[in-house]
Fold this sequence. Notes:
By secondary structure, the chain is mainly beta. Mean pLDDT is about 80; it is low at about 1-50, about 140-155 and about 820-840. The chain has six helices and 48 strands.
Amino acid sequence: MLLPRQHDRHLIRALPLLAAALLLGVPGPPPLAAEVTVQQRTVGPTPQPGGAGRILGSVVDAEDAALPAVAVTLRQAVDSSLVTGVVTDEAGRFRFEELPAGDYLLHVGRIGFVSRTSEVISLSMETPMVDLGSIRLVVAAVALDGVEALVDRPSVVVEADRTVYDVRQMPVAGAGAATDVLRSVPELEVDVDDNVRTRGNQPAAIHLNGRPLPIRGEQLTTFLRQLPGDRIDRIEVLPNPSARHDPEGMGGIVNIVLRDDVEIGLSGSINLTASSRGRQALGGRFNVQRGSLTLFSGVGINRMQMDSESWSLRTNLVTNPVTLTEQASLMDNTSRGWNADWTAEWALGEGNTLWSNAYLFNSGGGGRTSTNYGISDAAENLRESYDREMERDSDSGNYNLQGGFRRVLDPRREEFSVDARYSTGANDGLNTSARLFHVMGGEPVDLPTELTLNDVASGTGNLSIQADYFRPVFGDGRLEVGYRAWQRDQDNDNLLRIFETLTAPDPFEHTRSGYDYTERFHSLYTTLALTRGRLRAQGGLRGEFSATTFDSRIMEEKFERDYRSLFPSGNVAFEVRPGRTVRVLYARRISRPPPFYLDPFVPSTDPLNVFRGNPALEPSHARTWTLDLTVNGQRGTLRMAPYHTHSTDVWERIRTVDEAGVSTSRWENTATSRTVGTNVTVSLRPMGRFSGSTNFAVYRESRDGSNIRADLTGSAMMWRVGGNLGIRLQETLTAQVMANRFPMQSVLQGRASAYTFMQVALRRQVLDNRGNVSLMVSDPFNMNRFDSSVQDPTFTMLSRSSNPSRMISLGFTVNLGQTPQRQSRPSGGPEAGGGETIRVP
Length: 841
């Protein structure tokens, strides 16, 4: 049952061969249009026969700060055919080696910047090495001139430690939310509850603009549903982050980078979206750059409506005779919210910058759930039946403020920065449920309706300060050190009252619980990066001291835990030949249990389904080794990444059923989990009318829960495939088709079925490229549903759920401000330090 069917296994074997054939059998993209003049400086020895020429340089921004992760491609001057490509390192440097004599063109581009192309670079016996020096890129005014529909840039860039997906080339972003954009990334899995996972079914840490988001759980899900897709510039997936990054997140990091687009002076935009399932949003952006001040800001309002249905049948094996509990629910939720953000920078003279940013969001709403319960014996004779009608009112929000100072001591080589961050938030709700009995003891009854009120108030707070410094060492090496102090507070107050009738003045049952949870972290890190010819290596170590205190309001005991952890990382890359790179990566990560998992008593409005937290729950650790093979072909990139992950103290939700038919869930630490698998990613460069990417993953997961109970062990082979295809139907009309097939998932007590999700989107540039209209069809075949089964010595359970997501969404965006004028190509020759940038038409 856990293995793929026979024809699925044939598909697994065939996909890598198809991907390789696709890459190797097509010509390169057309010549590039933009041009910039660079100055050549000849250095070094004479190349040997067979090709030992070199081209090197660095890429900086308008303030001479290093630009990492810039795509640099080298082409033959005679026909613009691709020779090889690299991305700049953290110091903005790039290097091409072992090049034969000849004439070349160099193209430099990064999302959000105007691309540049060199004049012809000639390598010969007399000129064996060309140092292009610093190549300066300026911000692209994409918010004003519709460049996203016209520029020829890769939709996917494979970098040394991450894969970058260009959201601006996704039509789905114009009419959807962040969850829709994340679903369009082939490497990611966004399940029916909008939880984000990476390879091997591991939960990912969500970062915003390079920093971890201070929210988790339901608040994080709400935030991603509210964040407009057109606010996102790119999605970065880091499966093995270095020690520089926060170590939380077993599946690595998914970094959401927001758009900050500005034209000199004033600019802005207005966007409107609406869908057939009750999702509406209205937002605006305002950008200004005056002298040394740069400001990006935005505000938006939104409304969402979601409905779902579920069914379960639980067999109680403890009772004699066996009893069956059937439960069917219909849920309808509506929320209204707003969001606002800003990013501001103030230049304080050469090399000094003050900055601040903020992201604020709030969501309030309500919902209604109707549930029918039926309890019967093995012969299906009804013993008890009742309906429960529940209404919810909720209010949640988070307000995140950050500011800092950056001092550039030596552009691209030495820099110091310090930043502080504060956030506060709340997640409050009132649930009102009425229970009406129809059958008790096998006989019809006429009893008054029972009323239950559950009032929950919870809050979060975060305060952190971080300092980072890097400088050159050992020639072209780079040493980076940093420190972070962080405190995270969470509290919860849960009041449950049960009344015999709807009009009873006093409850006959009254329960109050809650907790105060504090986490304190102090961490130091260092990384060292070295380059020796075609070999690049980076190693790092992060040391962390953590202290946690869980204070339950119904227990006198405080649960305190202090622990020290080391998080090493490593990344060694060797360029076998131009366009062929082998990398070995290693990282150790951690997942810390949220306080809800620790709370020993959580009042429940459903007496048949109870949750108990585990205050002794330990953090889970994972060690991941990855062998990364990257091939840059003429038409795209092929990346194969076999990996092995070994996890300890993995959380597993264990369910049991007692003689009264009450199901109790509790999180426990299992002994170990091992995942062995491989990812195959194919990304196509824009060529003609087509672009896109696909990802195929196959892995085997083994879990050992024998420390809990001898029978809690198991393993399964799983696979998933996903991809998106972009098509330029007309000069101003693009289409995107996305599909993901998610595998069956196994847990210690059962399994969850596979499911498929699809999206189709169109985007039309209008108003002379000042605006665009987007149309998105989600889940056109209504396949976003799944079932699961759980088996235990005390019970078995079958369940089905459906979150209908089939809908049509329409989005409209108009950009405000003066359209940049096209500049003419300079007629003069080369100029020292680089030529004038020509905007791509």
